[in-house]
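haha ok so turns out i had the wrong file open the whole time. this is the CORRECT one, sorry everyone. sequence first:
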Amino acid sequence: MDAGAAVLTALCGAESFSAAMATRPWARSPHFFVHYVPVENHQTVLTSPAHTALSTKLSTELPTDSSLESLGVQKLGMVVPKRHARRAVTRVLLRRQIRAAMAQHRRELLPGIWVVRLRAPVDRQAFVSASSESLRIAVKAEVATLLGDVLRRCRSTRHAAQAPAQPAFQQPSTVLSAP
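then structure:
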């Protein structure tokens, strides 16, 4: 792997998940949300008063993830609740599809914390088999569409960060006086 390659690692710890899900979703689809916390913001989110008020830990005990500080590192977390995907086989299939899609496009993602959350139930009547080929194809298509929205937003964020700042409007230096 070359030095500029992005590294996609698993997100661990309830604090990191809740910090990411406290942010507004970056992208939405009928079944999924994608939440993102940039590298520079991950510590401020974890130590915010609202977050630490719910925790029994001291602020000095909150995790410090120095691995995120290096460029190109993304943490991936997936939330696939049992209430939305009742069968374990279905939950595993969803996680595998999400992980494969994110790994395929990891070099295009911004560094930081990424959480993909299942927000709507999987229709058991439409997909009779828990790990059917039709379910795999449907999930793959929806995750690809969702990730397309995420990548479009990543590109626009990178473009905005690289664009030179526009000079502010300047008042004319000469003052006109009335005759």
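The helical segments are 14-21, 42-46, 49-54, 88-104, 133-162.
again sry for the mixup
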